[in-house]
Write a structure and sequence with these properties.
5-stranded parallel β-sheet; alpha/beta; Rossmann fold; 41% helix; globular
Length: 130
């Protein structure tokens, strides 16, 4: 069975490397992107099963990336989990209108990350068979 691909987009090198290691340990292929300007092109090229997007980027840039992923026919169905700054969860509503399928606090632990990724990928898979 082919491993699921997860793209991690952000600017916090250490946090992204920790997420990448946790994802790879859990059996996922993790691709880390630091260049937010080329994120959409990279997401198109990689064709991931999931995107983890650091919403702590300047807000406008993070929302632009999410909306761009949603507008592109090749990436519109890729689920996006927003990694949000602590205490700002309510500033990042989940739903089809803004592109985020779920959010995770910036101070997540590896178990929470993997649990959320598995749930989103399972729900997405189940939803595509209906």
């Amino acid at each position: 069975m082919e491993r699921k691909r997860v793209v991690v987009i952000g600017t916090h090198w250490e946090a992204q490397m920790m997420a990448t290691c946790a994802l790879e340990s859990a059996g996922y292929d993790a691709i880390t992107l630091f260049d937010r300007r080329n994120a959409l092109r990279a997401v198109r090229d990689v064709c991931p099963d999931l995107v983890l997007l650091d919403m702590g980027l300047p807000k406008l840039k993070a929302w632009q990336i999410a909306r761009s992923i949603r507008r592109d026919a090749r990436t519109r169905n890729v689920p996006i989990i927003g990694i949000v700054p602590d205490g700002e969860r309510s500033d990042f509503p989940v739903g089809p209108g803004n592109g985020l399928i779920d959010v995770l606090s910036m101070t997540y632990d590896n178990r929470s990350l993997i649990r959320k990724v598995r749930k989103v990928l399972r729900d997405t898979e189940e939803g595509s068979h209906n």
